[in-house]
Amino acid sequence: MTFILGGKVFLLMADMKSISALVTGGEASAGPPLGPALGPIGVNVLQVVNMINEKTKDFLGMKVPVKVEVDTETKKFTVEVGVPPTAALISKEANITKGSGTAGTNNVGNLAMVNVVKIAKMKIENSYATSIRAATKEVIGTCMSIGVTIEEKSAKDIYSDITSGTYDDLFS
Question: What fold does the segment set 11-81 form as a domain?
Answer without folding.
Answer: Ribosomal protein L11, N-terminal domain (3.30.1550)
